[in-house]
Structure formats: C-alpha cells, structure tokens
Write a structure and sequence with these properties.
By secondary structure, the protein is α/β, with parallel strands linked by helices. The chain has three helices and six strands, in the order ββαβαβββα.
C-alpha cells in the first residue's frame, strides 16, 4: 500500500544497529530532525521483546507520538499502537490498523510533505 500510494518511506533500514520496519519520510530526516519523522514497528514477539526494542528506538525517536507500533492486539507500550482487533481500542493511543495510512497522510500534511498521491 505504501508503494502504491507513492508515500515517501524507507523500509527495513538499519540504524544504530537496529532494523527499523518503516521510517517516514526517510532516514536522513530521522537523523537530522526526529520530530519530522515517524518510525513504524510491526510487532513480532512478546510484549517484553517489543518493550526492549521500543526502549532502544526511543534513543533516536524520543517523541512517543512519532513512534507507532502495528500489532494484532493492544500492547501496553509508550507509543501509538495500531491494532487489528477493534475491541482492543481503548484510548487515543490505541487506534485501528486501518487508520494507519490515513494517519501517515495527516502527519505528512502537517509537516508540509505532499508526497502521498492517492488521496489527492
């Protein structure tokens, strides 16, 4: 979906010894101004493993509003959590997985990037 929408992003990039699933818009922006970048991580393990990974990622993306996790079920982590199961939506930090692309578009629009062509 990200490729079809021509969304500026980097997938599966190594940064400081950690593989990041998705960086929006790119690694250069994350390095130079983390507040203008989003890191998206797909949950692939226990909540404790994810907490450890998130703790490390927060060293270079300290803004929890710019650190997003996509998971099957709701996780208790200090970041925005996009979940597949609608009954797990409990707060503003827990959102539906289907809102992910829309929120990426909103983020890019707020930052002045108009690269997401599918919604124009």
């Amino acid at each position: 979906m990200l490729t079809i929408s021509i969304l500026p992003s980097m997938r599966k990039v190594a940064f400081n010894g950690t593989i990041l699933d998705i960086v929006i818009p790119n690694l250069r922006v994350l390095k130079n101004s983390a507040e203008n970048s989003v890191v998206i991580v797909f949950s692939k393990g226990s909540e404790n493993m994810m907490l450890e990974k998130i703790s490390y990622i927060r060293r270079f993306q300290p803004n929890e509003k710019n650190l997003w996790i996509a998971s099957e079920k709701s996780l208790s982590l200090p970041c925005i959590n996009y979940v597949l199961d609608q009954k797990d939506i409990l707060s503003e930090e827990k959102k539906l997985y289907s809102d992910l692309i829309i929120d990426i578009d909103k983020f890019l629009h707020e930052k002045g990037d108009k690269s997401l062509k599918i919604f124009q």
